[in-house]
Amino acid sequence: MSVNQTVKEIPIVPLEFAGQWIAWNEDHSKIIASAKHLPEAHQKALKTGEKHFWMSKVPSSKDFFGGAAIHS
Amino acid sequence: MKFSYSPFSREHIVGAREGIIYKPTLPIIVHGPTGTFGLDALADTGSDQILFPRYVASLVGVSLGQQNSAHVSGVGEKRMPIFFVDGIELSLQSDGQAYRWPARVWFSDSDEMPALLGHIDFLQFFTSTFDGKTHELALEPNKEFPGKLTDLWKR
User: Fold this and answer.
1) Which end of chain A is less packed: N or C, by CB atoms within 10 Å?
2) Is B70 helix (H, G, I), strand (E, B) or coil?
3) How far apart are CA A63 and CA B62, in angstroms?
4) What is the end-to-end Cα distance of chain A in Å, rounded?
5) Is the Cβ pair A67, B16 closer than 8 Å?
6) Which residue stretches of B3-155 are H helix?
7) What's the fold here for domain B2-7+20-67+79-151?
8) Which of B10, B11, B73 sits opposite A68 (nearest CB)?
9) Cα angle vertex B123, ends B66, B8, to 5°?
10) How much is the ipTM here?
11) CA B143 to mean position of chain CA atoms
């Protein structure tokens, strides 16, 4: 595997999906399902018949996002 | 291997123009005892650990117990329970093949968060170059990488 391999450019996620979970098809060329909550979006994706897909959390259109750290 | 950032449309926020925000996400597959789950996870240099939404745990066949719980916090004071699970493997695809490795993984108590790939068992195993101009993340396994090349989606 070469370090220079590059995945194809991912399409821009439209504003209408902001804050939702979406499912990309296997090559990230098409959004095949979406919903506010992950379980619902995942179930919708399964019903499309796509064998492999990727779930993705779309960021809010109006909020910034920060990272996370463990505290026991 | 290089990965294009994911572009998302965004409205105007104070201090940031409307338009597109790019995030360094990676297509990662979670391999558990009974299943796999594919999701785009954020490469997060500010995160200590790997953190996935709770829903993923049930689909890959792991149960979350209070005996393995901790808390996670981000910006601000809000803390959220998280659950450590052993016996998970992750894979990262490139051109039909995947790097696969065992990883210590935590699951959130919530599904309302993106998957995060932090330092423990992810960033520590790769030399990572975040190219803000081309919106690409280059990853190269380092000498500490404990995994192997394998076929994609194999349980």
Assistant:
1) C
2) strand
3) 32
4) 39
5) no
6) 54-60
7) Cathepsin D, subunit A; domain 1 (2.40.70)
8) B73
9) 90
10) 0.89
11) 20
